Amino acid sequence: MDEFRALHIPGSPLLLPNAWEFGVGAFLAAQGFRALGTTSLGVSAATGEPDGAPSTRDATVALAKRLARLDVLVSVDIADGFSADPAAVADLAAELAEAGAVGVNLEDALGPFEHQVSLIKAVKARVPDLFLNARTDTHWAGDHSVEEAEKRAKAYADAGADGIFVPGLAAPADVEKIVGLGLPLNLLFVPGKVTFTGLAELGVARVSLGSLPYRMALQAAADTATAIRDGRDLPLNPPSYADVVALL
């Protein structure tokens, strides 16, 4: 877990691609990525459930156990913890740590920050070495001020969070304000809105791809099928069957 923490370097951020099943994780690991995240949207879609639904808890744990077989560090997106009960969320974090995960991503979806503080405290009390990335949805679930993000980030840091995640935050001055709080800042890569290099220059310590790889895979699957139907060239050069078998 210390190795994962050490990868969060302000100005030289960890690029964290997100997987939704073992094969994708294995293929990403083969490209040299030292750490992987999971994506709640991808996991939920694979099981036919809404994003972050409590019914996807078991699938999330099962994926973490499979990815832990790889020589990578795994951080698990647990949405809102799949429960409002701090003890239940702490139990989930402990189960994931036992499975081999080194971190979790816990979001507030802009509920009362006092409740999120109680969840963070419960997780850190139960699994103090687990890297807890506290996500606030000020810029994702609504159009809120950077002051609100700053207030929540400070509260989560005081509760024991190891990192702060503010998806959707992009304005340079706002990013620098949250970076200035001193806790590793994680931002989401949003095509056309930010660049990896630009976020690094602002002092960001981690850049997540979130559901982007999953959504890109959906488009690639559709483009492949329609290209064959319409007599066009394939959109990508895929790994061979043998290459995929070797990963497994």
UniProtKB/TrEMBL annotation:
Q: Which UniProt keywords apply?
A: Lyase
GO molecular-function terms, A-Z: lyase activity
What Pfam families does the record tag this protein with?
PEP_mutase
Q: Does the keyword Lyase apply?
A: yes
Q: Does the keyword Lyase apply?
A: yes
**Which protein, by its recorded name, is this?**
2-Methylisocitrate lyase, PEP mutase family
